[in-house]
Amino acid sequence: MTIDDQSNATDENADDDRPKAYYRKARRKARRLGIEAETDQDAARILEAQGIDVMNDDVSLIDVQPEMLMETGGGQTINEAQRLAAIHEIQRNLVKRRRFRLFLLVLRLLFFVALPTGMVGYYYYNVATDMYETYAEFIIQKNEAQGSLGLGGLLAGTGFAKSEDSIVVQGYLTSREAMARLDQEHGYRAHFQSEEIDEYQRLPANASLEETFDFYSKHVKVSYDPSEGVIRLEVIAATPEASQIFAEALIGYAEERVDELSERVRNDQMRGTLDAYENAELEMYAAQQVVLDLQEQRGILSADAEVASQMSIINQLELQIEEKRQSLGALLDNESPNPIRVGVLENEIERMEQRVTELRDQLTKSTDNAVSLAKISAELQIAEANLLTRQTMLQQALQQVEFARIEANRQVRYLSLGVAPIAPDVPSFPRRFENTMLAFIVFFLIYIMASLTVSILREQVSV
Questions:
Q1: Looking at the structure, do residues 68 and 52 belong to the same domain, yes or no?
Q2: Does the pLDDT at position 149 exceed 50?
Q3: Residue 184: CA atoms inside 13 Å, Cβ hemisphere, count?
Q4: How many other CB atoms sit within 10 Å of the CB of residue 377?
């Protein structure tokens, strides 16, 4: 093997280390320059021999060395005139190719980008129906107790203290229930099924409940700011009057729902205390009736008064007995007492003592015909003590009712408008220029992605 063969073999081995994309690019560049080569490796060697950078695309044929065109891959030699003619021919071919490729690029851009963008712009500027948006803001307020301590007192008056009610109202306004009521009372579905609305924005005549609700969700937007406690309502309709009517109706529905929420809270707080008060009142009446029945049955209004009266009579009789005994003793001290007077005094003393015994028996002993005052007094004391207890419990229950009523009043919630819904005088949608530019960007990005995908696939297929 000669030295030249060894060097060629070394060059071929070095060429084999290069990526295949390098050789493919060398082959394409040789074709642009009019150089015939049998393989990609031959094209790379010829370009390198002529001092041309394969990876650099900015190569002008004017800068190509004459030796490059004097010797081709076949080893043939041409004169100066043929060389210049070949250069001009190659330049014309390159210009034609570039113009043709530019024409194809412009044509593709027109077809895939400009034409769809023009159609979208035509729709927004000439076909799309104007839509009007009514905006409103409101908050849910609560009558909180002033000066309350703790975390609740710190959060009172902020959006966090009313977040639950606001979230409930937000969910209600974006629900099927609110949509159905709005359609029933104000013809929401019929409004968007009008023939005056373009076909793309019109609600189909045979739209189902789910389709109508999806349409409603896009045209009624409710947002809630928890930091400020503000609920923002945006209602879109085909006319400014309809958008205002829909917004006012939804605010009215929200206010009714807030009233229902506060009413439930008040009823829950009052129900237990009112039931306890009614029970205490019934029990007090029952205890009072027991006292009255005892008084009627025993014929005694007050056992204490009866006992005091009986004891007063007994005391008087005992005093009289003592006086009679004194008189009897003085009479018996005589040497010849009068037996008649002695007998009278002794009979009087005996009768008084019997009366005292009867009165004392009435106080402590019961018979078949009468009940002792002690028993009557005990019964009345128990009944009156029970009555007093029931009266105290009734008074406490009444205080609890008043306290619950105050707390219920503090739980009252009401809706306050921050921004009233006012019909706009200019359409809010569609945003023609913005939507057209957005369509242009979308179509252009789609075209770029498709072109890159096709180029990558073509590169992989040509491997």
A1: yes
A2: no
A3: 7
A4: 18
Whether residue 408 has pLDDT greater than 70: no
- What's the pTM? 0.57
Judge if 246 and 295 occupy the same domain: no
**Average pLDDT of the chain to the nearest whole number:** 80
Query: pLDDT higher for 295 or 435?
Result: 435
Q: Cβ distance 356 to 321 under 8 Å?
A: yes
The average pLDDT across 298-322 equals: 76
Q: Are 185 and 249 in contact (CB under 8 A)?
A: yes
Distance separating alpha carbons of residues 416 and 395, to the nearest angstrom: 39
Taking alpha carbons only, the member of 283, 267, 282, 280 closest to residue 404 is 267
Question: Residue 376 is part of which domain span?
Answer: 277-410
Amino acid at 279: N
Amino acid at 153: G
Residues 340 and 392 in one domain: yes
Mean pLDDT to the nearest integer, 73-80: 54
- Does residue 139 sit in the same domain as residue 31? no
User: Are residues 295 and 232 located together in one domain of the fold?
Assistant: no
Pairwise pLDDT comparison (151 vs 144), residue with the higher score: 144
Task: Inform me whether the pLDDT recorded for 244 exceeds 60.
Answer: yes
Pairing status of strand 230-237 against strand 132-142:
antiparallel
In tens, the pLDDT along 348-394 reads 888 888 888 777 776 666 655 566 666 777 777 788 888 889 889 88
Given a cut of 50, is residue 171 above it in pLDDT?
A: yes
Take residue 382 and report the two structure tokens written for it. Answer: 């128990």
